[in-house]
Amino acid sequence: MSFDPYDFRLQFPALARDDLIYLDNAATTHKPTAVLEAMAQFYRQDNANVHRGAHRLSARATRAFEGARHTLARFLNAPASEEVIFTRGTTESMNLLANSLGQMVLDEGALVLVDAWAHHATIVPWQQAAARTGATLKPIPLDSKGRLDEVAFAELLALGPQVVVLTAISNALGARAPVDRWLPKAQAAGAITVVDGAQAVAHEPVDLQALGCDFYAFSGHKMYGPTGIGVLWGRRDLLDAMPPYQFGGEMIQSVSFERSSFNVLPFKFEAGTPAIAEAIGLGAAANWLMAQDRRAIAAHEQALLSYARERLQSLEGLTLYSAFEDNAGSLAFNVDGEHHQDVGIWLDQAGIAVRCGHHCCQPLMSLLGVRGTCRLSIAGYNHHDEIDALVAALTDYLEFLYDDA
Ligand code: PMP
């Protein structure tokens, strides 16, 4: 295998520094030159508002913006690009769904299932939708090993949920939900299925037609693209039937003071001037990722994460959470008896960026019996020396603790 993380890294200007080991990629990844250039070029050469413009600059901007949508449809192997809705990110995708789909399918006695490691961006919008409609939200619990509980899932499905939301890869743990096996079960139980792919898109190719879910949400900034842009993909028949989420320009067909009618997909769900440069940047990220050897990047990341897991497991006084062989991207740990924030500050002083806290998963933290954790999260540009540096800094911390005692 010829993948070289040091070579790969050269494409990321923000990483051309030697005072930072960046292991916070689940929060956001750095951006390759291809993305930076695409956005800069839009502002330098094509800047104009999209759609409806009679002038040539607007036509160029529209072509670039809609081109990005086509690229994303290809990136996801979506059946049609009109099903690709641009949003601000996973959070807005989930709010759109919970509001619009929620209004359509939830009522008194309805049930929404979310997994135990769902992000607040999933839990809170659906909790609010449930409160508005009289529906109930229930979690799919963890089993004793720290995976999603298969038996409990089957029991919950027997209750006939209207909506099942699965987080493909947990941002707090790096653990995987068995989406391939569980989505058909949820659909067989009559549920509409939603996948939070925020942590999945950077680590593995997404094939929506093979996956077979009804909706898929993700953010651009976690897959080497810009912030402020993401996608909600949905099945056309459902999107067509759903009411608009926000109202204003672009999403209408005709407006009078008495009534308005709404545009076709995807515009029906894209009110107002969109994040044009960001969508173009996300298209560039998707194009760039498709041009990489994704299999080789995934193999490198898997080897690196296994290495990190083994090295961290060998440290006395450190607890790992749901750290499985097939984790993707992230590992969560605590130094026993220490506040996660103290560990984070120590690591920062050693020039190592990890994330410490509840990772927007407070209910999961309660289940784990902790207030928070430290999380290392990798991307293709990380390498073994960086894991060694992390382990060395943690070893120092543990020695410092025990010396003190
Ligand atoms: N879901 C998951 C699994 C995430 O990791 C994140 C970001 N941490 C979100 C949802 C929310 O994404 P964003 O903040 O980009 O909207």
UniProtKB/TrEMBL annotation:
Coiled coil, from the record: none
Q: Name one Pfam family in it.
A: Aminotran_5
InterPro entries for this protein? Aminotrans_V_dom, Aminotrans_V_PyrdxlP_BS, Cys_dSase_SufS, PyrdxlP-dep_Trfase, PyrdxlP-dep_Trfase_major, PyrdxlP-dep_Trfase_small
Aminotransferase class V domain sequence ranges: 21-390
* Annotated keywords: Pyridoxal phosphate, Transferase
E.C. number, please? 2.8.1.7
Cofactor names: pyridoxal 5'-phosphate
Q: Does the keyword Disulfide bond apply?
A: no
Q: SUPFAM superfamilies this protein is in? A: PLP-dependent transferases
Reaction catalyzed: (sulfur carrier)-H + L-cysteine = (sulfur carrier)-SH + L-alanine
**The keyword Transferase is assigned to this record:** yes
Class of the enzyme per the UniProt entry, highest EC level? transferase
- As given in the record, the signal peptide range reads none
Record family assignment? Belongs to the class-V pyridoxal-phosphate-dependent aminotransferase family. Csd subfamily.
| Function field | Catalyzes the removal of elemental sulfur and selenium atoms from L-cysteine, L-cystine, L-selenocysteine, and L-selenocystine to produce L-alanine.
Q: Identify this protein by name.
A: Cysteine desulfurase
Originating organism: Ferrimonas gelatinilytica
